[in-house]
Write a structure and sequence with these properties.
By secondary structure, the chain is an all-alpha fold. It has a domain of 136 residues. Helices cover 82% and strands 0% of the residues. The protein has four helices and no strands. The two termini are 75 Å apart.
Amino acid sequence: MSTQADVKSIDTLAFVKAAIAAFAHEANQALGEVELEGSRAVEYLTVDRAAYWKSEVRKANDAVNKATKDLENCRSFKKVGDNTPACVEEKKNLEKARRRLEFCEQKEAIVRRWKPVIEQQFRETCVRLVHFHEVTDVRCPKAMAVVERMLKALDAYRAATSPAGADAAAGAGSAASVARQADDEAPAPPPPDPAGGRTREDQAAGGDA
């Protein structure tokens, strides 16, 4: 089995690391916006609307009471003998005020019924967002660290297997081989003469003397 890595592009890993960092940053921003907008929506539905329709119910009740008194006054002061006045306008106003009161009471009941449901759903959503924060705040940095270690390892591998590194290693090996060959081919020194302690070359040079 081959022990050589099949590296196509180290830059691709750098792009992956940058993409993970960008994803974590943008995802955190999106999560923050979701939490903020969700909190505003819940507050609007459960607090603002609840207070609004409660106030509208009170105003509608006051309008019904006023319309009722107006109708009673009309019937009392405009009565001529045994003839009861029609008080058409006052009756219309009373009917309109009653319809408004009924509508406001329905709205108030709807807000009151859905308030706990909305709050519970938002709490569950926040729990899911916390889990997603774990991805962006914990897992993404871990993934980036893994990619960074891979980049360093591949850079070291590329430096070790680059032509310059290979040429330097080959040159050092060749120099050592040449030195060993020179040592092997060098002539051996002549043996000394047992009689006079001189070599045969010395005797030939000096004659019988």
